[in-house]
Amino acid sequence: MNRASGFYVVSTTLGESVNAFVPYALPPKNPALVASEFYELNRQAEIALARLAGVSSMVPSVDWLLYSAIRKEALLTSQIEGTQATLTDLFNVEAGFNVSNVEDVEEVTNYLSAFRWVQNQLRDPNGLPISVRLLCGAHRLLLDGVRGAGKQPGELRRSQNWIGGTRPGNAVFVPPPPEHFSELLSNLEQFIHDSEFDLPAIVKVALIHAQFETIHPYLDGNGRIGRLLIAALFEHWGLLPEPIMYLSGYLKQHQSEYYRRLSAIRTEGDWQSWVNFFLEGVASAAQDAESNIISVASLVDTDRKRLMQSSKSGVNSYRLFEMLPMMPKFTIESVRRLLDTSVPTATSAINELEALGIVKESTGLKKNRRYSYQAYIDLLSN
């Protein structure tokens, strides 16, 4: 059987003629997906998502689940592209501390900005739907002021690009030329919003992500925008009530297979293996997120009980403790501002938590001291 997911056109770039790949519109037709081959994997993924949603509803504060989950996704999706920032770096910057790898952390915080903007658009009755305009808006925020700032932020590329290799002629993959974008992206939007395609929602997300990565419509940031699109589609189709799963962790852990499965779609028309891989990833990521939520909730609950059982604890130490999951690194001054109190009162609240071993001081200095909810940070960093 001739398996094909697209066709080649000759494109010229940097003085070389190359064969650029143009994908066919979704859904796959040659061959079509076989539902029986992904049915059980899709069922397991749906069950894992339902369990995750159930566990998240039992946690006292969804806000601190979101705080950590969105940051982990931002960090991991950036690490796939080579960014070296860590969760500790991100928390340090948010606390106002200096870090050595500022550019890496800025890329992560830009992703956070893009993610929040997309989520706000989708939740606003007058906001943009999932569309090329939405993705271009996110792309503009993603590349704002960082290393890709010269790569046409917020704009579809106007020139031929390539992936891998030292030049177009030895590239691993050459995406479609820009003149094909109008039809390709219009078809992608139609597939997202047309209800005639009788496929499970998670399977559709898998197809859309792969198609977007094949089109590769930007000069830079395609991987991160493509993975942000996954989160947007999960929101759009109500697969999770909140973005508390970080699929990029699975994709990073299986990065070689991730790229290999995408490549096999283009070279062999093998959509089925990609869909199966994606479904396995969703199930695994949902289970990891569920396990992490249980571990973090258990830690917070245990520490809260210790605090409540301490005869030396006052109302301000309780108030500070409840802020820690969304402020895992802090100073006396930041606590003073948040509690709207005096320096001695803020210091006393911190000292009460430090005496119980809940927070730790990291500088050993008398002034400009820095504190962290280290056990919580360690759990999130696993």
Notable features of this structure?
mainly alpha, Fic-like fold, Arc Repressor Mutant, subunit A, two-stranded antiparallel ribbon, 15 helices
Could you describe the largest sheet, including whether it forms a barrel?
Answer: 3 strands, antiparallel
How far apart, in Å, are the first and last alpha carbons?
45 Å
Radius of gyration: 23 Å
Tally of extended strands?
Answer: 5
Mean pLDDT over the residues: 94
CATH superfamily of the largest domain: Fido-like domain
Q: Based on Cα principal axes, name the global outline.
A: elongated
Low-confidence stretches: none
CATH level-3 fold name of the largest domain: Fic-like fold
Output the strand order for the largest sheet: 3-5-4
- Beta content comes to 5-15%
Number of separate domains:
2
Which architecture of the largest domain would the CATH scheme give at its second level? Orthogonal Bundle
Helix count equals 15
N to C succession of SSEs? EEHHHHHHHHHHHHEHHEEH
CATH class group of the largest domain: Mainly Alpha
The helix content is: 55-70%
